[in-house]
Amino acid sequence: MKKVRENVISYTIDKAIFSNFAILVENGEVVVKAPWYFSKQRIQEAIKQNKEWIMQKLNKLEKINMYKTTKIFGVNYAVKVVFNNIKTPELNLNNNHIEIKLPNKLVQKNNKKTIEVILNKMYQELAEKHLENVFEEIRVETGMAPENYVVKSNQKEIAKFDFENKNIYVNSKIMELEESCIKYIIIHELCHLKYKTHAKGFYKLLKTYFPNYEKYDEILSGYKF
Q1: Do 142 and 184 sit in the same domain of this protein?
Q2: Rounded distance, CA 133 to CA 1, Å?
Q3: Which of 44, 57, 196, 219 could form a disulfide with 25 if both were Cys (CB 3.0 to 4.6 A apart)?
Q4: Is 121 exposed, middle or buried (0-12, 13-18, 19+ CB in 10 A)?
């Protein structure tokens, strides 16, 4: 396969003995499939003739791909949306971005809600795996543990202590935060095992684990817990 650049359109030529001529635009790439006997000039003419259509497809894909960024453990990840010949959506977490694959049948639709659902599912799965270790680490360090904890994705608070059942409900979006902030929120909620209100004794206990708790309260001022 040969990579060619025609004006502002970069494309790959894929020649085969038995092949029909076709110009494909998939996932932001232009691929020209052509029989082996097609000349370079003939392919260039076809690209020029279809330039407007190709640019429309590329611009549309670029707009869809640049969805937004989201955070995991305080690190920004770009969200890249691509369309493939698949039946159900897929998500791959890479080193510097999140790739969401959607079925080709959705290419003409507004997929904002679908993407939100997929990202929320990602946070849910990450939280369920990660928080088990966090709670165990805190239990060993402080001796405090709830009767149970539940990861939820539809609550307003980033975390909430259930005084009646001594359970902690944790919003899956907690996975957006840095590790130290996650630990702070969990310990904050566990301090309610001994103090129902944010009284002087509550902050005295909290300070034994986080001497600079004021710093975390400031960082997390936009979250309710």
Answers
A1: yes
A2: 48
A3: 57
A4: middle
Inter-residue long-range contacts of 124-129, CB under 8 Å, 24+ positions, other chains counted: 124/151, 124/153, 124/172, 126/72, 126/172, 126/175, 127/151, 127/170, 127/172, 127/174, 127/175
In a domain, residue 133? The reply is yes
Strands 167-171 and 2-6: unpaired
- What's the pLDDT tens digit per position in 108-126? 788 889 999 999 999 999 9
Enter the tokens of residue 8. Answer: 């502002």
Q: What is the residue type of 97?
A: H
Note the pTM of the prediction, 2 decimals.
Answer: 0.70
Q: Are residues 143 and 163 in the same domain?
A: yes
In the chain, the number of structural domains is 3
Domain that holds residue 128: 121-219
Please tell me whether residues 107 and 163 are part of one structural domain.
no
CA–CA distance, 50 with 115 (Å, rounded to integer):
31
Query: pLDDT for 19-71, tens place per residue?
Result: 788 888 876 678 888 888 888 888 888 888 998 888 877 766 544 555 678 99
- Backbone phi and psi for residue 194, each to the nearest 5 degrees, phi listed first: -105, -25
88-106 confidence digits (pLDDT tens) = 999 998 888 899 988 888 8
Strands, E, within the chain: which ranges? 2-6, 9-16, 22-26, 29-35, 68-72, 75-84, 90-93, 97-103, 148-152, 159-162, 167-171
Residue type, 107: V
